[in-house]
Amino acid sequence: MAIKLTNLFEYRKRKNNRGWLRVVEAAISVMIIVGVLLTVYIRNSSSRDLSAQVYDIQKRVLDYIASDISLRQKVVASTPDLVSLKTAVADKIPPNFDFEIKICPLDDSTCQSTVSDTVSVYVADRIIAEQSGPSLVKKKVRLFIWEKG
User: Fold this and answer.
1) pLDDT (tens digit, 9 = 90+) per residue, 128-139?
2) 100: domain range?
């Protein structure tokens, strides 16, 4: 009788070990599934964050141009100085982005970038106006920003 009780105890002991193994396997499976879901969610949310980041950069750069008197004068001049405007703005743009600035009349609808269609280009513009004698000179500053790649 003693042998039979010992065998029964060992059988129950092995059975409990299998149960723990199944619990560990289930926990690992849940962690893998949660990890995959988090990775997919983070990748999708980072693209939304990029557009918000670019919008903040564009707003900051266009505010800088509008508030700096010398840059405003370069914009509304009869022949705008794009080279010095680009060098003044270049340090405001993060190094992983590239940019282009265009200065256009307000009624010009063809103020477009020369960037290829293969990249996502973010566009923002601002109207700069300044009193020049009796008339008011108004021009549109358009800022194109895209990721380097």
Assistant:
1) 888 777 888 888
2) 2-147
